[in-house]
Amino acid sequence: MSSYTEVSAVAISAPKPIRHTTNFHPNIWGDQFLKETSEYKPIDPNIQKEYEQLKQEVRWMIMDTTVSHAQKLHLIDAVQRLGVAYLFVKEIEDSLDNISSDSNSDDYNDLCTVSIYFRLLRQHGIRISCDVFEKFKDCEGKFKSSLNDDIQGLLNLYEAAYLGIHGEDLLDEALAFTTVHLKSAVSCVSPRLAEQINHALNCPLRKGIPRLHARFYMSDVYPRDDSHNKTLLKFAKLDYNILQALHRKDLHDILQLVNEQKVIGWKEKLVLATKFPYARDRRVEEYFWILGILFEPQYSYGIKKFTQILSLLVIIDDTFDSYGTLEELTLFTEAIKRYLKASIPFEYLNRLRKSNSIMEIDAIDSLPDYMKHIYKAVLGEYAEIEEHMANQGKPCYISYAKERLQTLVQAYYDEAKWFNQGYVPTFEEYMTVALETSGVELFISLAYLGMDDATKEDLDWLWSNPKLVRGSKVIVRLVDDIVTHKFEQERGHVASAIECYMKQHGVSEEEAVKMMKVHVEKAWKDMNEDMLKPTSVSMNKLERVLNYACAIHVIYYKSGDSFNNPHKLKDKVALLLRDPVPL
Q1: Which residues fall within 8 angstroms of residue 202, CB to CB, at 6 or more apart?
Q2: Which of 12, 87, 242, 461 has the most crowded CB, counting CB atoms within 10 A?
């Protein structure tokens, strides 16, 4: 007889526990993205034909060997900023390799071109020296005053400086120099140029979400450049709108699961808002978040699955943060551990996923009713991924995501114990747990599973906790704490990095925040350094780790905790998912 049996849910009378809840902002989107699928029409054949023709023309431009290296650098810079570089990875890689081997900074005399040269090669992983900027310093070792009026040069040097690594004082000086002069220039230039400067100062390329940068560049910057390439611009706009339509359709499909009385893809009798009223309803924002990590159309399955699991993790996070009692959280943590040890066949879980019953697997019968639904959803989502990976001949790959889930839940539980005990750990003790609650390794392992070319070597590298991953974890955790710690303490939450550092070192909140920002900036440099060649995995995989840190930087740091306050993110979501680019 099978050890896994299905049973009907039974209500058990028990005293109602006292629960801490938070009045989170409600869903602000209503049914905006829940339109009839008939409205999502296939791309007009004539537009598709024009798109393919323009795509080939852009490819020829990148491959053209008759233009100068400086012209090619400016072209590649535009291709990247317009968000279409993902379509020409091999062509760009070959061009930059050729430029790197056939030229040096002495071939370029203006600050703008040298800065683009440096930034593109660094982004490509090439260890180009920052000494290329020495020519722009005076005899006293300071940047020449004649550069003050070169706004485009300053903007590009500013962007290049964010690719710096530890020990590159010249780039630190460049960042300080350009920041001061760009800020002072805002009131002296045209409104359009002032807008470009403010956009860069608010969020540099290295720390932003590529799709948002692309939308701004193709709408407000590139068309006003007298030398812009009309073919490239038209292609970029078409690509943006086509990809936006695909993303909107995928988001519609995800939301439809809830709208049709399903909870995170599960055929249940209650919808999300009534099953977990204490949790944040952020499905649209979650999808936006994932698009900051993966956006390419070939990863559509992975993006949708990733979003569904993120929705689950938000519910789990809110359960551990406020709603669940310590006894319930203990049972749930143990249930997750038992699931991972049990090696339950995904065929069984997949069959169970399609049923309407509450099931019994090891300790699930001891869970409170609401947790049974969460637990069932976890098992089912993982079963779907396991089946998908098995169909690709990679059934064992799911083990990485399982282990990271257990680590994340255990870290949530450790923080819940601290809160219930009123314990404030040292900063170092806090970080050993808090870095795990960043979820970086779980999210990136899920991202890799959603990419058809992921290998065991990629996942082993991720498992080894390399400098790039450690840096991303520090950024994600501390940026979150810097922005949300006051709100979290008001609603009742474990001490954040800020409170831990203040208590341990006897410093003010302002001093603690300042120190956290120092740790964050060090982490960005760690990430930059670990993305320089030779690397253990492809740049495509490394960029997903960087993208995760950038998504958090935008959603939390630059948008003022917009995950908890979704109205702050509304305009960005609209640009990415709702409003097409005018052609």
Answers
A1: 558
A2: 461
Q: Determine the straight-line distance between the first and last CA of the chain, rounded to whole angstroms.
A: 64
Q: DSSP assignment of 342-380, as one string? A: HT--HHHHHHHHTS-SEEE-GGGGGS-HHHHHHHHHHHH
Domains of the chain: 45-237 (1.50.10.130), 424-563 (1.10.600.10)
DSSP string covering 426-492, please? -HHHHHHHHHHHT-HHHHHHHHHHTSTT--HHHHHHHHT--HHHHHHHHHHHHHHHHHHHHHHHHH-
Under 8 Å between Cβ of 140 and 96:
no
The CB density around residue 417, as the number of other CB atoms within 10 Å, is 14
- Report the Cα 215 to chain-centroid distance in Å: 17
Quote the CA–CA distance of 484 and 421 in Å, as a whole number: 22
Query: Do 506 and 500 contact (CB within 8 A), yes or no?
Result: no
Any residues with CB less than 8 A from the CB of 252 and at least 6 apart, and which? Answer: 33, 34, 35, 37, 40
Name the token pair of 15: 């005293």
The count of residues in the chain is: 583
pTM: 0.92
**Is residue 413 within 8 Å of 333, Cβ to Cβ?**
yes
Residue 393, SS3? coil
Q: Are 55 and 85 in contact (CB under 8 A)?
A: no
Instruction: Provide the residue-wise pLDDT of the chain in tens; the chain has 583 residues.
Output: 444 334 344 444 455 677 766 778 888 998 888 875 555 677 889 999 999 999 999 999 999 999 999 999 999 999 999 999 999 999 999 999 999 998 777 788 899 999 999 999 999 999 999 999 999 999 999 999 999 999 999 999 999 999 999 999 999 999 999 999 999 999 999 999 999 999 999 999 999 999 999 999 999 999 999 999 999 999 999 999 999 999 999 999 888 876 554 444 433 333 455 678 889 999 999 999 999 999 999 999 999 999 999 999 999 999 999 899 999 999 999 999 987 766 555 554 555 545 444 444 555 788 998 999 899 888 888 989 999 999 989 888 899 999 999 999 999 999 999 999 999 999 999 999 999 999 999 999 999 999 988 899 999 999 999 999 999 999 999 999 999 887 777 676 789 999 999 999 999 999 999 999 999 999 999 999 999 999 999 999 999 999 999 999 999 887 677 788 899 999 999 999 999 999 9
The residue written with tokens 């930034």 in the block is 119
Q: For residues 468 and 458, is the Cβ–Cβ distance under 8 A?
A: no
* HSE (side-chain half, CA atoms, 13 Å) at 536: 16
Determine the 3-state secondary structure of 280 from DSSP. Answer: coil
How far apart are the C-alpha atoms of 392 and 433, rounded to whole Å?
A: 34
Peptide bond into 297 cis (omega under 30): no
What is the C-alpha R_g of the chain? 25
Q: What are the structure tokens assigned to 54, written together?
A: 């323009």
